[in-house]
Amino acid sequence: IEGLTPGATYIFVVKSVAQTKDGVYKTNGALSPRKFAYTAPAVAKGLVQCGLTSSSISIKWNKATGADGYKIYKYNPSTNKGTLIKKVASSVTTYKHEKLSAGKEYCYAVRSYAKAGEDELVSTSFETRYAITRPSKVTGLKVTDMTDNSMKLSWNKVSGANGYNVYKYNE
């Protein structure tokens, strides 16, 4: 059966039918017992990083049709596995992950879920998003080897930084 609504509950019954070859006589059997069935919720889409500090990352996503809530995972793409970080209600579409290391990359996945009787059904797929915390502040900035048209700058290496931007201002 196709064209069903994500995250919906359906009740199915089936009735057998018998008919003579000439089609004159037709009879119905008794109805089967009712069977409750549930569709998985739609996929939570639009997962993006929407904020960061040196110790936190904020993510957001769009509401998913039929979702009773969302499960947020720290995801490892190389193993295709995630560690559940938080479970939130369907009214929540943002999450702030705190107590992280500065300048470190993280990967997130958000799965929508729907209650199905005593169980939960999760969306059939999910989006992932890489996000990164802000690197720590540069310390130990030194100016040496000054001449009339050049100078040398040096500073302490920042863990997690994979490059540096140098800005020059004239007074």
Helix count from the secondary structure assignment: 0
Tell me the Rg in angstroms: 28 Å
Instruction: Please report which band the strand proportion falls in: under 5%, 5-15%, 15-25%, 25-35%, 35-45% or over 45%.
Output: over 45%
Give helix and strand order, one letter per element, not per position: EEEEEEEEEEEEEE
Distance between the termini: 73 Å
Topology:
Blueprint: E1 9-12, E2 15-19, E3 26-31, E4 35-38, E5 48-52, E6 57-60, E7 69-76, E8 81-89, E9 94-97, E10 105-116, E11 119-122, E12 127-132, E13 142-144, E14 152-154
Antiparallel strand pairs: 1-4, 2-3, 5-6, 6-9, 7-8, 7-10, 10-11, 10-12, 13-14
Write a short abstract of this structure.
This protein is mostly beta strands. The protein has strands at 9-12, 15-19, 26-31, 35-38, 48-52, 57-60, 69-76, 81-89, 94-97, 105-116, 119-122, 127-132, 142-144, 152-154.
Identify the notable features of this structure and list them briefly.
mainly beta; three-stranded antiparallel sheet; rod-shaped; 14 strands; 171 residues
Describe the protein's architecture and organization.
By secondary structure, the protein is mainly β. It is 0% helix and 45% strand. It has strands at residues 9-12, 15-19, 26-31, 35-38, 48-52, 57-60, 69-76, 81-89, 94-97, 105-116, 119-122, 127-132, 142-144, 152-154. Strands 7, 8, 10, 11 and 12 form a five-stranded antiparallel sheet that branches. A three-stranded antiparallel sheet has the order 5-6-9, with no helix packed on it. Strand 2 (15-19) and strand 3 form a beta hairpin. The N and C termini lie far apart (73 Å). The mean pLDDT is 92.
